[in-house]
Fold:
Amino acid sequence: SAVISQKPSRDICQRGTSLTIQCQVDSQVTMMFWYRQQPGQSLTLIATANQGSEATYESGFVIDKFPISRPNLTFSTLTVSNMSPEDSSIYLCSATGGVGQPQHFGDGTRLSIL
Amino acid sequence: TQLLEQSPQFLSIQEGENLTVYCNSSSVFSSLQWYRQEPGEGPVLLVTVVTGGEVKKLKRLTFQFGDARKDSSLHITAAQPGDTGLYLCAGLKGGKLIFGQGTELSVKP
Structure:
C-alpha cells in the first residue's frame, strides 16, 4: 500500500493567518483527498484534489477558504486561509489507486488556532 | 442527517469480552471499508468488503457486508487492550468515501 507523508504533523497558529499542509505519496496514485476530523470524531471530506485542475469541493467547503493544489500524481497541498479558532482540527490527506481501490491515509496535521 | 449510521459510538468493555459494531444505511454502497485509528495517527485500513453477504476474517475480527450492501458489522472475539481505538466504517459511493460517526472502543485489562 502507498505510504503517505504529511507535514507539518502539528502547528499552533494565530488567528487570521494561513497555513499550508503538504501531502506526499511514495507512488503514483489516481486520486487524492483532503479530510477534516475533530479529535475522537469521524472524518468529513473537504475536497478531491485533481491533478492539473481545480479541486472538487464538498458542500460547506469553498476554494477561497481551503485552496488546494495538486501539481503531479504524488503531491498535494491544502491551505487553511484566514484561520479562526473554529478551524482547529485534524486535517488528513488520503490517496487511492483508483475508484474501488483501498484508500490510505497520512497521519494527519493537528492544527490549533489561538 | 448521517448517511451511514454507526453504533455504538462509545464502548468500554473488559478484556476477553466479545463485541459487535454496526454500520447501517438506507443507501447502497459499492463497497465498505473498515478502519482503525489510534491517537496521533491516521486511520489504518483493516478490510474492504465488496460483495453482498461477504464475510471476511482477520484474526479475531469478523467483518460482514449485508446482502443488500447497505449495512455492515464488525465483530471482535475475546477483545484485548491492544484493540483499543477508534473504529470507522466508510461506504464507497460515487467514488467517494462516506464515513460513519466512529466507535470509540476501550478494552480494559
Observations:
- Chain B has a mean pLDDT of 94.
- The CA atoms of residues 88 and 102 of chain B lie 5 Å apart.
- The longest strand of chain B covers residues 85-93.
